[in-house]
Structures are given as structure tokens and as C-alpha cells.
Amino acid sequence: MTSAQQVYLLIDLPAKNGRPARTSLWTAACRAQQWNKSDRTFRLEILSKALGRQIASATEIGALDDFDAVKRHLLMLADNVAGARETIEPEMGRARRLRDAIGDLIKCIRVYLDDQTDPFVAQIIKDKFNHGSRVTVVTVDDLTAAPIILRNGRQIPSQLDQLVYTLGACLNGSGKIRGGKRSRLGFRVAAGDTLHEMKIKAGVKCDCAQCLGGVSVPASRLDYQTETVKEPDPF
Asked: What does the chain look like in DSSP terms, one character per residue?
């Protein structure tokens, strides 16, 4: 997990500089179920149940599907209706995360294409997923996060995954020759922008070292009994 994910799921933060205290999803679930939030052994049992496998430490939770699984389960335990629904339909959480990523990629493309961005993205979606239809209009909301099974039984990435890869290449392609073919030269690369510069221009979250300045929690911290930590000062 990332540090931000660790805090969101498992670590309470005290109020600081006028910012209200933050309650972790684990604490919210424990309050709803009337559990002892400081019982580490019991917590690992609940996390293991959410993951469908036994873990010995919360550091074993991955940042993608594992995080989604634990989040869904804790939201359900915290009596969060939306979270309960995602437990029944696990694809929803992943689809939402992919659509959020696509939204950020489109904002970045807009830095370079301006008002041509929407028709550019619409054409990519049409070419990839419309299958030549001149009538049906496919949008990002119509795409799914379910892996695609071909007639020969081979599995390929979902529609949303494919769109993330394509839009990412539109921005970050190196233009180098690979396997005898020249890759796409990305808009960002052609403009000479760093990832940080592009994201700042686009107004999307940047996770580079220059921008982080947020909560940094050592991995070993997740196994402590107490659940409240201090944030490091950013200056």
C-alpha cells in the first residue's frame, strides 16, 4: 500500500493546524461493530477475510486489488451502503479507479490539445470499441473493468485498462524504435515537459517527491498496537 492508503485504511490522525482529526476506515468499522480497534490479532483476521488469504502483517496488502478488497469489506462493516454494494459487485471499485485515472489522463491531454481533446478521445474510443458501428456512440461510462475472454480462450485486459494504456502512450510515448516499429511520440515528451510539469499544468494530483510533502508512514508502523500517529511537518 501507499502511505496515503495506509492512513486511509488503518491509521487515525489527530487534529493539526485547524485541520480536523481523521478517523481510519478500520476505526469506523470497529465503532459500528463494537470491536476493540487495538486488537492486532483480530484485525489481521478481518483483513485476511477481506483478502481471501491469510496474512501475518498489514504490510502484505497490495496497493491495487488488495486495497480495493479491504476497503470494500471495511466499508461494509462500517455500515456504508455504497461499500456494501461494491462487496457484492467487486468490479465497481476497480472500474471507478480506472475511470478516475482516465479522467486525469484526459485533463493532461487537454494541456496539449485544448479544445481538440474531446473529439480526439472520442475517436480513440470509437476506433477501439465501436467495432465499426456508425450508429452506436460509446463513451467511457460504457466501458467495463472486466477482463475480456477471446474465442480462443485467451484473456486480454479490460476495455478500461486498454484505454488507460492508450491514453498514457499518447502522452508519454518515447518515439523510440522497438521491435522494428517506432512507438508513438507522446504529447508531453514532444513538448519537453516533465511528468510533474504536465500534472501541474493539468491540475491533477502529482505524487512526485517534489509534491508529496504529505503523510509518510513506515511500513512497520502498521503492526503497532496504538492507531494514532503524528504527521511529519512538511517544512
From this structure: --HHHHHHHH-BB--BTTBPPB--HHHHHHHHHT--TT-HHHHHHHHHHHHTS--SSGGG--TTHHHHHHHHHHHHHTT-HHHHHHHHSTHHHHHHHHHHHHHHHHHHHHHHHGGGHHHHHHHHHHHHHSTT-SS----GGG---SPEEPTTS-EE--HHHHHHHHHHHHHH-B--EETTEEPPB-HHHHHT--HHHHHHHHT----STTT--S----GGGGG-S--B-PPPP--
What single-letter amino acid sits at 2? T
Contact 126, 138 (CB under 8 A): yes
Taking the C-alpha atoms of residue 114 and residue 118, their distance in angstroms, rounded to an integer, is 9
Residue 206 has which C-alpha cell? 502529482
Instruction: For the beta carbon of residue 45, count every other beta carbon within 10 angstroms.
Output: 13
Query: Distance between alpha carbon 176 and the CA centroid of its chain, in Å?
Result: 29
For the chain, what is the radius of gyration of the CA atoms? 21
For residue range 110-167, what is the model confidence (pLDDT) as tens digits?
999 999 999 999 999 998 887 655 556 788 988 988 888 888 888 889 999 999 999 9
| Closest alpha carbon to 108 in 206, 2, 10 | 206
Could you read off the pLDDT of 189-231 as tens digits, one per residue? 999 999 999 999 999 988 777 776 544 444 443 343 333 333 3
Q: Residue 72 and residue 78: Cα distance in Å, rounded?
A: 10
Q: Which pTM was predicted?
A: 0.57
- pLDDT of res. 223: 43
